[in-house]
Amino acid sequence: MRFYKASLFHIGILFLLAMSSAHAYQHAVAMPDSYSAKVAQQILDRGGNAVDAAVAASFSLAVTYPEAGNLGGGGFMLMRVHHHDWFLDYRESAPAAAHRDVFLNDEGNVIPFASLLGPKSSGVPGQVMGLWQAHQRFGHLRWQEVLAPAIALAEQGFVISPDLVEVASWYSGWSSDKGYTNNFNTYFGNLVVGERLVQPELAATLKRLARDGVREFYHGETADLIVAHQQQIGGLITHQDLANYHAIWREPLSVDWQGKRVVSAPPPSSGGVALIQLLQMAEQHQNPLQTESHNSAQYIHILAELKKRAYADRAEYLGDSDFVTVPIEKLLDPAYSQQRADEINLNQPSDTEAVAPGLGPWQESEQTSHFSIVDRWGNAVASTFTLNMPFGNGWVVPGAGFLMNNEMDDFSAKPGVPNLYGVIGNDANAIAPNKRMLSSMSPTLVIADQKIDAVLGTPGGSTIITSVFQTLLNWYWFDMPSQQAIDATRVHHQLWPSQQIGFHPSLDEDTQQQLRDMGYQVEARRFFGDMQVIKRQADGTLEAASDQRGRGESRVWPQPQ
Ligand code: GLY
Question: Which fold is adopted by the domain 271-317+328-361+463-528?
Fold first, then answer.
């Protein structure tokens, strides 16, 4: 009998060990398209880690997801490697010749669309430097090996999806009558669903990068092609700007929330600050929020009130912390969040004008892309990167085959005047040479018991922050499975436009009417992000999900030992 008991005990232990090792050996990816999902899986199966997979997937997205995947833009990578959290900032920077008034006319007014489509709309690209540095520090596989899948996709082509055709034809139409030229249609004007898009110039650039490494982009033939094109169109980026570009390792921001640790992006993103403020303020109203039915008018109203306060602070205080003092500690002080949350009337919207930044005066595209990866060692990557608008400013660098960003629009061209996303900025986000423009990109990790509990993020400009926030509430307060949590209707408010709540994909008519009765304007939004998430389940296994709003694909699979 004793033997029997002992055996059962040992079998139990063996079972638990087998289970935990099976979990430990799972890989998971949630990617914005099927090509990047396949590439990430191949790299992980070949023995690469989450960072190798992230770098390979980023390069492949520069080929198959041209609206946001890029070589001519920038991004952020939040990593958990060796049980430590790392944040790499490879956001674009303003060229040295840029200045505060670069997008103003002689009367001091903003020149319409100059920061989006004009020749000076591009920041110095950071993407290649960021991918190189992430790989240099943490990659296992050779640089050539992680670039190989992207080269094959550019050379052999990939099958054009309906989604890509739709967004390309929208961009072509949108950009055609704004008074600026570009060569977008030469490269992306005739896309046909089901045909293959082969990109020989891009393939040649990727091959040079594989052969010569990062120097090629910032000092080599690619640099020459970028600068020649900038000179031809009247752009600002010089050889010196490219040579001076550097990616920056920063300390991520984190908060203890609901017994877990949420880790997110520091400035020059506004994402981490605003997300942490929202989570802390939401905790003050946990009781009505968690007991209200999800997405009821009351629930949406409380979220809108919290968002008003987070976006008022964003506009006043957030900018590149290497150039302006961002009062992060004060903004993230739980007592401050409590004070801000206490201002809210649970039944009635505050006046927009009355919602001032809470610390007093301070002295001082939608089409981004995100993916999430967890490898069998428990490392994780949350990466968000962008050209700003879909296809950036529509200029493909001739001979190099990649699009340039229009990230200069993320600066505040003139204090108080809204940008593309309708968000307002002040002096903290004014343009200055070499400064990085404020972002909303919020790659985020959740850590529980020292292990990855969730990896998440999304594109969507200023809606990124509220999408990540709502997904966290959907998981942790409403116990939704991942697919439901990210497909659920999301709502957005950002202080300005006044009392305007956007939703996607649908909100029942009764709830809309109740919100109108409270004084809100309620509208359906065409775009609302593309969440790519990984979440640990109660039994320790991983679950991955891709937003129904995009063309993403997610996979979880065991790694045989
Ligand atoms: N360009 C969008 C963002 O960085 O938030």
Answer: Serum Albumin; Chain A, Domain 1 (1.10.246)
